[in-house]
Amino acid sequence: MKVVGFAGFSGSGKTTLVEQLIPELRLRGLRVSVVKHAHHSFDIDHPGKDTYRHREAGAFEVVAASDKRLMLVREFEQPATLSVHHLLAELYQGVDWVLVEGFKDSDLLKIEVWRAPEPGQVAKPVRYPEDDFVVAVATDAPQGLPVPTQLPLLDLNSPAQVVDWLLQYEHRFDYNWDLHGGLVPCAPQ
C-alpha cells in the first residue's frame, strides 16, 4: 500500500482536499482508505442501536457487518494513545492508497496544506522548514508562503494535479511489512 499524510492548521482545507482526492484516485482504478486523527471523544454509533447497546453493556469490541459495510468499535479500558502506525495496521491490506489526515507529528511522508489568510488576518505558520517528512506543499497562494521553499508546490484547488504528482512519485509512498509481520514506514527520500 501507499501512504501519504496531509498536515495543516484547522481551516486550511485538509478535509476538503482529501475528500476530493478519493474520487480522483478511484477514477484511476485505485482503492482508497482514509485514516483521520480525532482530537476529542467521538462516536459513530448512536443510542438505541443494537451495537450501541452492546458497547454500553461493556463489550470491549463490537463488530457489525452487512453485505455492504463493516464497522468495528473498540472501547479502551484506559485512555490510549495510538500512533498512526497502529491504525494503519488495522486496515485491509488490499488497499492501494491510504490518505492520512492529521497526525502532523508522525514520521509519514506528508503534504502540507497551507491556505492564504483572509484579508486582515495573519498567515498561519508553516511546518516544512522544520519537518523533514513534508515532501510537498498544497496551497492556493504559492507566492504568499511565509518561508521560501524548494519543495514541489501543488495547486490546492486541483485534486487531479495532486493525484498526478502522487502517482508520479508513488514509489516514495510505499508502506511495507517488516519481517515480524508489522508495518514499517519508508524513510523520507
TrEMBL record:
Molybdopterin-guanine dinucleotide biosynthesis protein B (MobB) domain sequence ranges: 3-140
Superkingdom assignment: Bacteria
Pfam families: MobB (PF03205)
PANTHER family membership: MOLYBDOPTERIN-GUANINE DINUCLEOTIDE BIOSYNTHESIS ADAPTER PROTEIN, MOLYBDOPTERIN-GUANINE DINUCLEOTIDE BIOSYNTHESIS ADAPTER PROTEIN-RELATED
Protein name in the entry: Molybdopterin-guanine dinucleotide biosynthesis protein B
